[in-house]
Amino acid sequence: MRFGIRHKALDVWSGKLDEISYPFLLTAGILDEEEILQPHNVLLVPEAEFTIMLPPRRI
Questions:
Q1: Are 23 and 30 in contact (CB under 8 A)?
Q2: Closest alpha carbon to 39 in 51, 22, 57, 56
Q3: Mean of the per-residue pLDDT values for the chain?
Q4: Is the pLDDT of residue 24 over 90?
Q5: In Å, how far are 21, 34, 38, 44, 51 from 8, measured between CA atoms?
Q6: What average pLDDT does the segment 41-54 reach?
Q7: Distance between CA atoms of 47 and 21, rounded to whole angstroms?
Q8: Is the full-model pTM beyond 0.70?
Q9: What is the dihedral of CA 42, 27, 47, 56, to 10 degrees?
Q10: Eight-class DSSP state of 28
Q11: What are phi and psi of 25, to 5 degrees?
Q12: Which residues are within 8 A (CB) of 3 and not within 5 positions of it... i.e. 6 or more apart?
């Protein structure tokens, strides 16, 4: 299945993550303590509007 997502260009910033707190990822068992402290990337966008076209369709 496939669905479409549209959005305007994002104003993305480059930086270094010093601290992170996302309790849901730990309590849901998605990540453990070690994994949450070493993210692959972090997207920081002050505001963004996304449009998702549903329902999904077969490809």
A1: no
A2: 22
A3: 84
A4: yes
A5: 28, 34, 29, 15, 10
A6: 82
A7: 19
A8: no
A9: 100
A10: T
A11: -65, -35
A12: 52, 53, 54, 55, 56, 57
Q: Residue 59's pLDDT band (boundaries 50, 70, 90)?
A: low
Rounded to whole angstroms, how far apart are CA atoms 17 and 1? 35
Residue 58, token pair as written in the block: 């077969």
- Counting runs of H as helices and runs of E as strands, what totals does the chain give? 2, 2
Cα–Cα distance for residue pair 42/38, rounded to 1 Å = 10
> 2-7 and 50-57 as β-strands: parallel, antiparallel, unpaired?
antiparallel
What residues does 47 pair with on adjacent strands?
A: none
